[in-house]
Write a structure and sequence with these properties.
Length: about 350
């Protein structure tokens, strides 16, 4: 009964509104902590918290946040011009790779939501940063949009690589449809991979790869980098890591390995991975990579030089690192080389 008496609605008596106004003034205008307000008023801390929530509900307290600026800094324009892409910078100068990746994914959410097509099909890869993005996407109703994994759909050892679950979460936030890819990311051998690709259940999803309207992808770091979170490189044993290192591999995009100069590396890794083909990936009209962190400088440079992405969302330190590595003229054509 006591809780029912404390419950306030938008038609609350003026006395109740005055209590909400007073508690809100103490908290928001006088910067008192909730335990201090509880001690002053004789209320419990939980009651103070409820009063503040009710004050927001009925409009006594109105909280506003400045919208992000549409104007991007010169650094984003320089990066975009250099590689023939569109670049967008998220806030933050995190030095820890894990924190940088998560903050980039969360900060990218509003921009990504506005960038997505209203209809058609979008491809989704997995990864730590896209996992953060999925949690922060604003809710929309895009009933004519379909979300499709572009790499194997599950990974029992790393939840960030469970692309089916990621696709489900993104589709849920967007109010979109979803197709699942009922196959793991990496198979034991090429023969098993080819057999799975012929399966009708798998083909029902992979047939969408040739006609995607856009894609959201992450970019892994090099095979020996340990960023503090699980990556696709964790599928390798020590011998596999050394093999890719010897081949000059600096990263992976949707199952495809590349060097810092942008050349694609042929390896058993790709031949055993169920993923969109490199030609299909390059034919997608818009491919947005979302990645940040000191562990991503070389890999993002390689992905840009390979022409695998048309849009990049990253933070300022990562953009600066990419441009430092790119050096002088002739660093690579980026997007303009995708069809070559």
């Amino acid at each position: 009964m006591a809780r029912a008496a404390e419950r306030v609605t938008k038609t609350a008596p003026s006395a109740d509104r005055e209590v909400m106004r007073l508690v809100s003034e103490l908290y928001y205008a006088r910067d008192l902590r909730q335990p201090e307000i509880a001690e002053m008023t004789g209320f419990s801390v939980s009651k103070v918290s409820r009063i503040l929530a009710q004050a927001r509900e009925v409009g006594i307290v109105r909280i506003s946040v400045d919208p992000p600026t549409d104007e991007q800094p010169a650094l984003a324009l320089e990066l975009g011009h250099r590689f023939g892409i569109e670049a967008w910078l998220t806030p933050g100068r995190e030095t820890d790779p894990s924190a940088a990746a998560r903050l980039c994914g969360v900060a990218a959410a509003e921009h990504v939501a506005a960038w997505l097509p209203m209809t058609g099909a979008i491809g989704i890869a997995g990864g730590y940063t896209l996992d953060a993005l999925a949690s922060a996407l604003p809710r929309r109703i895009l009933a004519d949009l379909t979300v499709v994994p572009v790499v194997g759909g599950w990974d029992s050892r790393n939840r960030y690589l469970d692309v089916n679950e990621l696709a489900r979460r993104i589709a849920d936030r967007l109010g979109a449809q979803v197709h699942y890819l009922h196959a793991p990311g990496m198979l034991d051998d090429e023969e098993t991979k080819e057999a799975l690709l012929r399966d009708s259940g798998v083909a029902a999803t992979t047939r969408h790869w040739a006609a995607l309207d856009a894609a959201l992808v992450g970019v892994s770091g090099g095979p020996t980098i340990m960023p503090g979170y699980g990556t696709v490189m964790d599928r390798l044993d020590d011998g596999g890591r050394r093999r890719l290192l010897d081949l000059g591999v600096v990263g992976d995009v949707s199952g495809h390995l590349f060097r810092a100069d942008g050349t694609i590396v042929e390896d058993e890794w790709s031949r055993r991975t169920i993923a969109i083909s490199i030609d299909e990936l390059r034919r997608i009209p818009r491919v947005m990579a979302i990645a940040a962190g000191s562990n991503k400088h070389h890999s993002l440079l390689g992905a840009l030089r390979a022409g695998l992405i048309s849009h990049l969302v990253t933070d300022r330190p990562t953009a600066e690192g990419i441009l430092r590595l790119a050096g002088g003229a002739g660093a690579g054509a980026g997007r303009t080389s995708r069809g070559s």
